[in-house]
Specification:
Blueprint lengths: L1 E7 L2 H12 L4 E8 L2 E8 L7 H30 L27 H6 L2 H26 L6 H12 L4 H8 L8 H14 L2 E2 L4 H4 L3 E6 L6 H16 L4 E5 L9 H10 L2 E4 L3 H10 L5 E5 L9 H10 L6 E7 L4 H11 L6 E5 L8 H9 L3 E6 L8 E2 L3 H11 L14 H5 L14
Parallel strand pairs: 4-11, 5-8, 5-9, 6-7, 6-8, 9-10, 10-11
Antiparallel strand pairs: 1-3, 2-3, 11-12
Helix pairs in contact: 5-6, 7-15, 9-10, 13-14
Function: Necessary for flagellar biosynthesis. May be involved in translocation of the flagellum.
Membrane topology: Peripheral membrane protein
Family: Belongs to the GTP-binding SRP family.
Length: 435
C-alpha cells in the first residue's frame, strides 16, 4: 500500500496528479486548503514495479493450472461413480504461453490413488447405494405420492379383496379426482361390472341345441356341475332331449359318478375314451338338444391337456369349451389354469365352490383379465339347488364384503402400499383393457 500527498493550485490539478501517479483506483484520504493551495492525501493498494506484470501472469497461469487439475480430478471421480472410464475424461483446455508450460508439470498421482482397488470398491458401493436410493425415490414418486387419500383407501380395499395390483391400478387411475370416498368404491365396482361378461338368459343354453364340454383340473367340480345343469334342464324340458358323455377313462371308475347322476335323472350316459369314440357318440346324439361332456380332470401342467383339447377340436360338431374355475384357488393358480386350457380358445367359464372361498377377488380378476364369459356360479354340493346365473353387481359387491370379513387374513392398509407398488407387474398385451 502506498500513501502520498499532492499539492496544486486547484483541486482539479491535484486530482490529475493523483491519477497519474497512483492510478484511477487510488483512494482519497483527505482534501484541504492551505494558504490558497489544495492538498490531497491519497493512497494506492498496490504499486507497479519493474517485472511485476510477468510475476502476475505466472501467478495467474499457476492458479489456472491448479484449477484445471482440480476440475480434472473431480470429473474423473464423477465419471467413476457413473461407471465410465477415467481414460475418456478430458479436462477443459487452458490457454497458456510456452513460458508457462513448466507450471503444468505436476504429476497426476491422484489418478493412481483413485484406481486403487480399495478406492474402486468404495466407489462401487457408493454407486450401488445411489441406485437403491433412486429406485426407492422412483417407487415413492410413482406410487403413493400420485394417489389422493381416496385413491389410496380404494387401492387398499382392492388388494385386501384379492384383486391383482395391475387391475387395481388400471381401475383407480381412471377414478375422477373430485370423487369422495363414498363415491369412489361404487364407481370402481360399477366399472368392474361393466367389463364382466355373464350369461344374461339361461334360454341361451336350455332352449338351443348345443354341446358343452367342461374342462379343468381334478376336483374342481366338473361332474357335480354337469349334474346340476342337467337337473335344471330336466325340470324345464324333461329328460328326452339331453345326454351326458364322460371321457374320464384315466381314473378307475371315473365315469361312475356321472352314471349315477344320469340314472337318478333318467338321462342317458355315454363313455368316450378317444377322439374317434367321441365323434361316433356325438353322431348318435344329433337329435339331442343339450349334450354335456364331462372331460377328465387334468393338471394344467399335464402334457395331456393339449391332447384333450385336440380331441374336442377335431370333432365334426361345434363343441363349446367351458373352463371350471375354483373360487377358492389363488390368483396365480387360476390364471395359470386358464392359460393352459385356453390353447384352442375358451367359450366361457363356470365359477365353482364359491362357498369354500374366503375371497372372490382372485377369480373375478382372472375372469376379467382373460375376458371369459361367466355362465354359472355354484356354491354347494346340493343338486340342483346350488347353482345359479351370475348377478355381476352382487358378485363384485360380495368380493368387497369378504374383504371386511374376520376370516380374511390378507388385509392391506394404505400405509402398506409402497411395498406393493415396488412389486408391480405389467399385464401382458392383448388382455383385458378396462373402460
Amino acid at each position: 500500500m502506498t500513501m502520498k500527498k499532492f499539492l496544486a493550485k486547484t483541486t482539479r490539478q491535484a486530482l490529475m496528479q493523483v491519477k497519474e501517479e497512483l492510478g484511477e483506483d487510488a483512494t482519497i484520504i483527505s482534501n484541504r486548503s492551505i494558504n490558497g493551495w489544495t492538498e490531497i492525501l491519497a493512497r494506492s493498494e498496490s504499486i507497479t514495479l519493474p517485472g511485476s506484470k510477468l510475476l502476475d501472469s505466472v501467478s495467474s497461469a499457476k492458479e489456472k493450472a491448479e484449477k484445471a487439475l482440480q476440475a480434472k480430478k473431480v470429473q474423473e471421480t464423477v465419471d467413476l461413480l457413473n461407471g465410465r472410464s477415467s481414460s475418456k475424461v478430458t479436462s477443459t483446455p487452458v490457454e497458456l504461453t510456452p513460458s508457462h508450460v513448466e507450471v503444468m508439470a505436476p504429476k497426476e498421482q491422484p489418478v493412481e490413488i483413485i484406481n486403487h482397488p480399495q478406492i474402486q470398491g468404495m466407489l462401487k458401493e457408493m454407486r450401488e447405494m445411489r441406485n437403491q436410493f433412486q429406485a426407492q425415490l422412483e417407487t415413492l414418486s410413482n406410487s403413493t405420492l400420485e394417489f389422493s387419500p381416496n385413491k389410496r383407501d380404494l387401492m387398499s380395499q382392492f388388494l385386501s379383496a384379492g384383486f391383482n395390483l395391475d387391475l387395481a391400478k388400471r381401475v383407480i387411475s381412471k377414478l375422477p379426482s373430485d370423487f369422495s370416498a363414498k363415491e369412489a368404491k361404487p364407481w370402481a365396482m360399477n366399472l368392474l361390472a361393466k367389463n364382466m361378461q355373464v350369461l344374461e338368459n339361461e334360454a341361451e343354453i336350455m332352449n338351443q341345441h348345443g354341446i358343452y364340454a367342461l374342462l379343468g383340473p381334478t376336483g374342481v367340480g366338473k361332474t357335480t356341475t354337469i349334474a346340476k345343469i342337467a337337473s335344471r334342464f330336466v325340470l324345464k324340458h324333461g329328460n328326452q332331449d339331453i345326454a351326458l358323455v364322460s371321457t374320464d377313462t384315466y381314473r378307475i371308475g371315473g365315469h361312475e359318478q356321472l352314471r349315477i347322476y344320469g340314472k337318478i335323472l333318467g338321462v342317458e350316459v355315454f363313455a368316450a375314451k378317444d377322439a374317434q369314440e367321441l365323434q361316433q357318440t356325438l353322431e348318435k346324439l344329433q337329435d339331442k338338444k343339450l349334450v354335456l361332456i364331462d372331460m377328465a380332470g387334468l393338471s394344467q401342467k399335464d402334457k395331456m391337456v393339449s391332447s384333450q383339447l385336440d380331441m374336442l377340436c377335431e370333432a365334426s360338431r361345434d363343441i363349446k369349451k367351458i373352463i371350471c374355475l375354483n373360487a377358492s384357488g389363488t390368483l396365480d393358480t387360476l390364471n395359470n389354469v386358464s392359460k393352459a386350457f385356453a390353447g384352442r380358445g375358451l367359450d366361457g367359464c363356470i365359477i365353482t365352490k364359491a362357498d369354500e372361498a374366503i375371497g372372490l377377488g382372485s377369480v373375478i380378476n382372472v375372469i376379467l383379465q382373460n375376458k371369459l364369459k361367466v355362465l354359472y356360479l355354484t356354491n354347494g354340493q346340493r343338486v340342483p339347488e346350488d347353482i345359479a346365473l351370475v348377478d355381476k353387481i352382487a358378485l363384485i359387491e360380495e368380493a368387497f364384503k369378504q374383504e371386511d370379513s374376520s376370516d380374511h387374513l390378507s388385509i392391506v392398509r394404505p400405509e402398506d402400499l409402497p411395498a406393493f407398488f415396488s412389486k408391480s407387474s405389467v399385464m401382458p398385451s392383448g388382455q383385458a383393457q378396462y373402460a
